Amino acid sequence: MNNVTLAISYLEKAKVRLKIIQLLMDEGAYSDVIREAQIN
């Protein structure tokens, strides 16, 4: 794995995490939003 593929992998994971955070916000699970946003 080189730097470019590593960066692409991190960006893809970030996109998924943003979807999860939005779902948690929509559900009013704010403490879970904070916890998820702080991971790595």
Task: Describe the protein.
This protein is mostly helical and 40 residues long. The protein has one domain (3-38). The chain has two helices and no strands. Helix 1 (3-26) packs antiparallel against helix 2 (30-38). The longest helix is centred in the middle third of the chain and has 24 residues, at 3-26. The two termini are 20 Å apart. 0% of the residues are buried. The model has no long low-confidence stretch (mean pLDDT 93).
Task: Write a short abstract of this structure.
By secondary structure, the chain is an all-alpha fold.
Query: How many beta-strand segments?
Result: 0
| Tally of DSSP helical segments | 2
Helix content estimate = over 70%
Q: What is the beta-strand fraction?
A: under 5%
Strand and helix order: HH
Distance between the termini: 20 Å
Low-confidence stretches: none
| Cα shape | elongated
Which sheet architecture does the biggest sheet show?
Answer: none
Coarse structural class: mainly alpha
Number of domains: 1
> For the CA atoms, what is the radius of gyration?
12 Å
Q: What integer is the average pLDDT? A: 93
Secondary-structure topology with pairs:
Layout: H1 3-26, H2 30-38
Keyword list:
40 residues; mainly alpha; 82% helix; 0% strand
